[in-house]
Amino acid sequence: MEHVPFSSRELKNSKLVIESLLESIRSGDVDLFREILAAHLMTINKVALAKKAGIGRRTLYDMIDPDRKFNPELTTVSALLKALAA
Q1: Which of 60, 65, 72, 62 shows the shortest CA–CA distance to 30?
Q2: How far apart are CA 85 and CA 28, in angstroms?
């Protein structure tokens, strides 16, 4: 994973993270999306986020596993963004 251009304090800021995730989608930078998501998840409770998003914990871990192909469904991305905003 490349260095995500945020401090650990900024990575705890869900609003900033959501804006950055959306910008990475707009720009088509899927790798950056994954990097930002993985870095943010290091600062929060992943199990609680998965529960809040209504997705399986394994799905969340698979999304940030660098050894797995990254191609989440739109419903998964949408659920994560909603959960982060809540």
Answers
A1: 72
A2: 21
Q: What are phi and psi of 17, to 5 degrees?
A: -65, -45
Reported as a single tens digit per residue, the pLDDT across 50-69 is 999 999 999 999 988 989 99
- Three-state SS for the chain is CCCCCCCHHHHCCHHHHHHHHHHHHHHCCHHHHHHHHHHHHCCCCHHHHHHHHCCCHHHHHHHHCCCCCCCCCHHHHHHHHHHHHC
Q: How far apart are CA 43 and CA 38, in angstroms?
A: 9
Q: Output the pTM of the full model.
A: 0.83
